[in-house]
């Protein structure tokens, strides 16, 4: 039924239809650009009374009308209710991120049976780092790749170590690929040293440098580079991953980026890629695209 208005004034009845709203334009009191916005007025008492009877017929039928007074009162009460700042904050977060909650699947959440929550490195994490580590594992299981782009000083290394330990507990081979200046820091945590605060966790990941991708002889931290099985790592953690932001093509040589892609990502077992960088974008968004391509290529492996 088309919406209408029945008006009684000084004993005279009139009906207006169709009425699509209560603005001046919808009521026909103001012109508009809409070609179909016509409101008809019927002053014939018989016609006007017919519309009124139709309204009364619907209004008094309990099967067609629902009393919403209580629901409206509850809504008004909730609008004017005093809410704590914490509740308002969480409500805002939910409305911003509720679409992403659908992506959370128990099948790709960390497996508690591995005992990763009992490790020393996990217990050392702040809550925000635990959330980050859980999210990283979720992304690695879902997309085979993830970038942790926290700012300097927020503990990306510790978050990554928690992820590494999770995969080590699942008997996965892990490689940390880092700049040479950061190698000692990573090697400290997988060595039996008094300076290793996570010695009880017994990390056993390998550490190699970005430049080792281009070397074919010699050793790097006791690992013979001519015999490295680059394609046998289940997880590769790339520290300072923005160093692989360029994917330039040369006729006469293979770039470090291309060697990483060929030797580690495309060869051997299906590899998950965790990238750490405080500055994933340096000059252009292609910097980020090239890094994401490492994870994308890994996800396309059969």
From TrEMBL:
PROSITE patterns cross-referenced by the UniProt entry: HELICASE_ATP_BIND_1
Listed A to Z, the keywords are: ATP-binding, Helicase, Hydrolase, Nucleotide-binding
Among the GO molecular function terms of this UniProt record, one is:
ATP binding
Q: Which SMART domains match?
A: DEXDc
Give the originating organism: Marinobacter salarius
Gene Ontology BP annotations: DNA repair; replication fork processing
Per the database entry, which stretches of residues form a coiled coil?
Answer: none
Q: Quick check: keyword Nucleotide-binding in the entry?
A: yes
Q: Where is the Helicase ATP-binding domain?
A: 137-298
Q: Which domain of life is it from?
A: Bacteria
SUPFAM superfamilies reported in the protein's UniProt record? P-loop containing nucleoside triphosphate hydrolases
What the entry lists under InterPro entries is as follows: DEXDc_RapA, Helicase_ATP-bd, P-loop_NTPase, SNF2-like_sf, SNF2_N
For this entry, the protein name equals Helicase ATP-binding domain-containing protein
């Amino acid at each position: 039924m088309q919406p209408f208005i029945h008006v009684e004034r000084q004993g005279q009845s009139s009906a207006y239809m169709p009425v699509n709203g209560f603005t001046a334009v919808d009521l026909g009191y103001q012109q508009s650009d809409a070609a179909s916005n016509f409101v008809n007025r019927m002053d014939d008492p018989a016609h006007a009374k017919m519309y009124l009877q139709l309204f009364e017929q619907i209004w008094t039928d309990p099967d067609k009308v629902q009393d919403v007074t209580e629901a409206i009162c509850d809504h008004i009460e909730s609008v004017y209710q005093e809410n704590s700042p914490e509740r308002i904050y969480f409500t805002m977060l939910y409305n911003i991120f509720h679409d992403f909650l659908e992506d959370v699947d128990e099948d790709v959440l960390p497996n508690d049976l591995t005992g990763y929550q009992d490790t020393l490195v996990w217990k050392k994490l702040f809550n925000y780092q635990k959330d980050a580590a859980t999210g990283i594992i979720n992304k690695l299981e879902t997309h085979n790749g993830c970038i942790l782009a926290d700012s300097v000083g927020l503990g990306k290394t510790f978050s990554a170590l928690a992820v590494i330990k999770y995969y080590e507990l699942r008997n996965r081979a892990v490689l940390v690929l880092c700049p040479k200046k950061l190698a000692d820091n990573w090697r400290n945590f997988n060595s039996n040293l008094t300076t290793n605060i996570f010695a009880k966790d017994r990390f056993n990941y390998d550490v190699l440098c970005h430049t080792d991708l281009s070397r074919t002889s010699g050793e790097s931290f006791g690992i013979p580079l001519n015999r490295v099985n680059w394609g046998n790592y289940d997880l590769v953690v790339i520290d300072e991953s923005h160093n692989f932001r360029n994917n330039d093509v040369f006729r006469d040589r293979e770039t470090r980026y291309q060697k990483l892609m060929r030797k580690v990502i495309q060869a051997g077992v299906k590899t998950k890629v965790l990238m750490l960088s405080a500055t994933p974008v340096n000059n252009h968004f292609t910097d980020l695209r090239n890094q994401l391509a490492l994870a994308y290529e890994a996800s396309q492996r059969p």
